[in-house]
């Protein structure tokens, strides 16, 4: 998606990219999301996940956030998480802008919280792969046990490949 976006005519001088979530790992680590953002021709605000005091760093990041994002790009995990909001984690109820969560899939993470993500003008969920199909179906059925169900549905665009959409009911052919 990023490669395609970079090929488009975009007024990059009017764009700033902010991270939604990031793994706590050293700079340049292969598990860092930041590696996908190095070629963007605009300012990129990376989450300060290498700071010694992660909680303070998360609050500094939150204090610098824009009042409202235009678009937040998200994915969906095969366990129903999005934006590093793990199942059962209290981050989904946070009223702060940015939080640090305990270890999830092998790493602590820093993430924007539901109030920030849901305040955006739009959300773009890009999801692919058969392993996501059961979670897509549960999310579309409003399964409140899934962290992704905390996403505001209005102005949320969902792009699925056929494998991720496989468990959804077929559209009626009236």
Walk me through this protein's architecture.
The protein is α/β, with parallel strands linked by helices and 174 residues long. Strands 2-6-5 form a three-stranded antiparallel sheet. A three-stranded parallel sheet has the order 4-7-8. Strands 1-3 form a two-stranded parallel ribbon. It is globular and about 45 Å long. Strand 7, helix 4 and strand 8 form a beta-alpha-beta unit. The model has no long low-confidence stretch (mean pLDDT 94). It has a single domain, classed as Rossmann fold (3-Layer(aba) Sandwich), CATH 3.40.50.1360. The termini are far apart.
Topology summary:
Elements: H1 2-6, E1 17-18, E2 21-23, E3 44-45, H2 54-63, E4 71-74, E5 98-104, E6 107-112, H3 114-119, E7 122-127, H4 133-140, E8 156-160
Proportion of β residues?
A: 15-25%
Strand order in space, largest sheet: 2-6-5
Class, according to the CATH hierarchy? Alpha Beta
In CATH, the architecture is 3-Layer(aba) Sandwich
> How would you state the average pLDDT, rounded?
94
DSSP summary, beta strand count: 8
Reported by name, the CATH topology is Rossmann fold
Keywords, separated by commas or semicolons:
about 170 residues; alpha/beta; Rossmann fold; three-stranded antiparallel beta sheet; three-stranded parallel beta sheet; 4 helices; 8 strands; about 20% strand
Give a brief rundown of this model.
The protein has helices at 2-6, 54-63, 114-119, 133-140; strands at residues 17-18, 21-23, 44-45, 71-74, 98-104, 107-112, 122-127, 156-160. It is an alpha/beta fold. The strands form 3 sheets. A 3-stranded antiparallel sheet has the order 2-6-5. A 3-stranded parallel sheet has the order 4-7-8.
